[in-house]
Amino acid sequence: MTSLNQEGKIAVIIKNSILIKDGNPARYRLQTKTDGPHMDQSKPYRKITFGERHKNEPHKIILMVGETGTGKTTLINVMINYMLGVKREDKVWFEITDDQSDQTSVHSQTSIITVYGFYLQESPIDLTIIDTPGYGDTRGVSLDKQIAMSLLCLSESAEGINEIDAVCLVINATQNRLSDRQKYIFDAVQSLFGKDTAENIVLLFTHSDGARPKNALMAVQEAKVKCAVNDKKQPVYFRFNNCQSDAADEEYDEDEEDKERREQRLNQSWETSSKGTMQLFKFLDTIQPKSLQMTREVLLKREQLEANISNLKARVQMTELKQNELKQTQEALEKNKKDVKENKNFEYEVEVVYKEKVGIDTSKASKATCCTVCKENCHYPGCWWVIDLSWCEVMKKDYCTVCTKKCHYSKHIKEAKIYVTKTKTEKKTFEGLKKNYKDKIVAGVSVAKKLEEELQESEKEKVKLVNEAFHCVETLQIIALNTVSLFTLQHADFLIEKLKEINEPKKAKTLEDIKKSAADGKKKEHWNR
């Protein structure tokens, strides 16, 4: 039986809540405060809080990750009702989630993480749940990257979320194998965290009938999901049922046996979920939280790597086009070598390289960060929400880590345009060529020789950038939990080609081995199906 004190507490909560639907149980939405992008455009996340944070109370922070439809929203409410002490016989169900959280359509506009802060006066702990709605939906990599950067922003914000107690992978207990999308989601999440976070990753099985989810556990093991293990080297998991908020007296339950079976099912649902929540909270008491410092390093390195590779591709293109311009100039000098020797003027045509600003592909990004001094794209694609450019992921101590001159952020601009490299045919003269190089040529050095030197400098810059990009990959290999990240594979071919061009066969072989390892893993998964 529910105690009088508990009845009184629940009555107070009901009085201050909003009725969603009457019934058994009656569903109520808790009165919460919401803070998010609609109030502050600089925040790529929103926060929903119940109660006031107790600075001296133990604080547990968990990250919920799962494919749309696995029951994350219900699971969040299960934990809230457990902390409120709600029992089956209370015939009431409270929800902290809102309508936006309940959206499961692939067209849902939910594209940011939601932070639920649950601060109950009588509770021995404060709980923060970071939910990642839409993770792995049809919007794919761009949305998932946005969620990753939301986590980075949250870790650096005034919210003070600098550590995570547990990363909870939510899986349907009835699954026989993980879908490609789920594997993608878990790979993406694991690649966000440092190697030392594996012991804080746990499995939450929803829609459980209370039995050991043998097939789902085997599917997790076959997919090589890294997570905490028990003394028997088995994955740490907790079971939940998602039927607790179902009504016990639906109109179609006319038969008494049907009603009795439904009542038994609901009682079992409450028992399974309550036990799962209790065990999860006990686990949270025993595990040491993990700092997000390494996660920040992983995210920033990944952003800088992608930005460097994008910038590198543009600079390589410029180098190759300048090579072509040089060859055409050399051919013109050779063709007119008599005039060159006699210092006579002559005309010739070359394909001249230039840069032009054009509108961006809005399917890749809404904005781009570009350097107005170097006339380069420093962060595209992938640049999105930041208002203050000093916060941009490619900036370090107020200076750009990407553009040629590593300019101050104030020399950059954020807009829906990028620089593109183009060529146009121009008529040039030998007199103009000499005038152009007048201040650059010293005694005994020809125009052609000076052009060769410039090309060599450009090649040195290319070598430097390729090595920097490879160094970023190496760093990710060292600090990332999931070393064969989707991001690394996405750019592997390009880097392998360029490493071979600059005569770095060992580094190219390293990336080829990573690619082969990932390919072998996929083949093994295919054979196991």
TrEMBL record:
Describe the location of the AIG1-type G domain by residue ranges.
Answer: 62-218
Disordered as annotated region, ranges: 248-271
Q: Name one GO molecular function term.
A: GTP binding
Q: Which Gene3D superfamilies match?
A: P-loop containing nucleotide triphosphate hydrolases (3.40.50.300)
**Does the keyword Nucleotide-binding belong to this entry?**
yes
UniProt biased composition (Acidic residues): 248-258
Q: SUPFAM superfamilies from the entry? A: P-loop containing nucleoside triphosphate hydrolases
Chain coiled-coil ranges: 295-343, 441-468
UniProt entry keywords in alphabetical sequence: Coiled coil, Nucleotide-binding
Q: Do you know which Pfam families this protein is assigned to? A: AIG1
Into which family does the record put it? Answer: Belongs to the TRAFAC class TrmE-Era-EngA-EngB-Septin-like GTPase superfamily. AIG1/Toc34/Toc159-like paraseptin GTPase family. IAN subfamily.
What name does the UniProt record give this protein? AIG1-type G domain-containing protein
